[in-house]
Design goal:
By secondary structure, this protein is of the alpha/beta class. It folds into 2 domains: 245 residues, TIM Barrel; 131 residues, Lyase, Ornithine Decarboxylase, Chain A, domain 1 (Beta Barrel). It is 29% helix and 21% strand. It contains 11 helices and 17 strands. The strands form 2 sheets. Strands 1, 10, 11, 12, 13, 14, 15, 16 and 17 form a 9-stranded mixed sheet that branches. Strands 2-3-4-5-6-7-8-9 form an 8-stranded parallel barrel, surrounded by 4 helices. Strand 13 and strand 14 form a beta hairpin. Helix 6 packs across helix 7 and helix 7 runs parallel beside helix 8. The longest helix has 22 residues. The protein is globular, with a radius of gyration of 23 Å. Bound molecules: pyridoxal-5'-phosphate. The site of pyridoxal-5'-phosphate has 18 residues, from helix 9.
């Protein structure tokens, strides 16, 4: 079930006042829900020594939300310098930051490695000789290629640009060892929005097999494995949730067996984004127009620049109309934004209660990869972000973009190269 009943109830109590004060559109995040999920995750994995979640910053790169994650003891998974700097801005340093990037420039490595560094997770074997200095602790991202089937969003591992190939694993760790690395981890990420816990358990088994191979061959021990993010959430009303407890149980068993037979066991790291915040966010937008041509359109004051998942991946986001939950009559409509792109639709041929101008549409599950994926195409300005706090107060945690922001990159000293 998308968006918890509790969040829906809390939101329905405050949404009119929030709209009156802040105006639409906005994303609003539920602190209670985020903390509840964080607690549940920690509880599920509590029997695994050294378990740690590194919140995937790209899912919801807001320092206010990241501070909540930090309070819960989580680190941060970053894939660019700005994300690393964002983590450091809330005083998360060193091994609380995992830097997992792809096609990385040397400048980005420099940022990642200075100011107390981070856990460096290399995406390619050629990077070993390019990084400014081999850190003591090093990790590689493993891509199993044809050995595993990927899932729908992230695709088939053979076609995926991420990670080092199976054949490169031994040479990579050998070279790192020779260059002075003393501590080791291994990472993989094969799934996105995966709802089947068995898949995540199989991924853990796969990475433990690789750890076994490398540690035996090179006589090194591994401090951690990182099984990536990709834990799914149900976006459709009737979809079952991922069973996090069964997932933890299966992984716990694998780690226990590994310890018994090998005499050491790596810690378990994870870097979930969507699972942590996805269901705990909603996009609130007002109806501004109705249009009746070959189809009926409900035009709202947000566009796909505030939430591009439906346009980009044709994914479903549940929608309800505030105060009109079960009202009749209903109609089949496309819910659209204002961009000159026909994919700028939040819902296609959706059965919804009839609306009037100024009705509020609540678009569910926008807490991850929502605002973060926003863009400025067509001069669209990204909306604000609000936090519904545990005491029911509402805090502005990012303002909306202004025309000045849109013009910001056009103000510069004249620079003309004569050639
Ligand atoms: C995107 C990403 C994540 C987070 O993915 P979710 O599906 O949000 O859990 C974690 N790790 C890496 C390397 C990623 O690219």
């Amino acid at each position: 079930m998308p968006m918890s009943k509790d969040f829906r109830k809390r939101l329905s109590h405050v949404v009119s006042k929030a709209v009156e004060h802040f105006g639409t559109p906005f994303h609003i995040y539920d602190e209670k829900g985020i903390r509840k999920t964080g607690k549940a995750l920690k509880h599920a994995f509590s029997k695994i020594d050294g378990f740690k979640e590194f919140f995937a910053v790209k899912a919801l790169p807001n320092p206010r939300i990241m501070s909540i994650m930090k309070e819960m003891g989580f680190g941060f998974d970053c894939s660019s310098s700005p994300e690393v700097l964002l983590s450091r801005s809330i005083k998360s340093f060193g091994e609380n930051i995992m830097f997992t990037s792809n096609n990385t420039s040397i400048n980005e490595f420099s940022t990642a490695l200075d100011d107390n560094g981070c856990i460096l997770n290399l995406d390619d074997i050629s990077l070993i000789s390019k990084i400014p200095k081999m850190p003591e602790l090093i990790c590689f991202r493993y891509n199993p290629g044809p050995r595993r089937k990927g899932n729908k969003i992230i695709g088939n591992p053979v076609e995926s640009k991420y990670g080092i190939s199976h054949e490169q694993v031994l040479p990579a760790y050998k070279e790192a060892l020779e260059k002075g690395a003393k501590r080791f981890g291994m990472h993989t990420m094969l799934a996105s929005n995966e709802l089947n816990h068995e898949y995540m358990i199989e991924t853990t088994k796969m990475i433990l097999d690789m750890v076994d191979l490398v540690s035996t061959e090179l006589n090194i021990k591994f401090e951690f494995i990182n099984i990536g993010g990709g834990l799914g959430i149900p976006y459709q009303p009737e979809q079952p949730s991922l069973n996090i407890d069964l997932m933890a149980k299966g992984i716990e068993e694998l780690l226990n067996n590994f310890k018994t037979s090998k005499g050491f066991v790596p810690k378990l790291f994870m870097e979930s984004g969507r699972y942590m915040t996805g269901p705990h966010g909603a996009l609130v937008t007002s109806v501004i127009n109705h249009k009746n041509i070959y189809r009926k359109y409900v035009g709202v004051d947000a566009s796909m620049s505030a939430l591009m998942r439906p346009g980009m991946y044709e994914t479903y986001h549940h929608i309800h109309i505030h105060g009109k939950d079960k009202s009749l009559p209903r109609e089949k409509v496309d819910v659209t934004g204002s961009l000159c792109e026909n994919i700028d639709k939040f819902a296609i041929q959706r059965d919804l209660p009839e609306t009037k101008v100024n009705d509020l549409l609540i678009i569910h599950d926008t807490g991850a990869h929502g605002h973060a994926m926003g863009f400025n195409y067509n001069g669209s300005l990204r909306p604000k972000e609000l936090l519904l706090r545990e005491d029911n107060s509402i805090e502005l945690i990012r303002r909306e973009e202004s025309i000045d922001d849109y013009f910001a990159t056009l103000g510069f000293e004249p620079d003309k190269l004569m050639v």
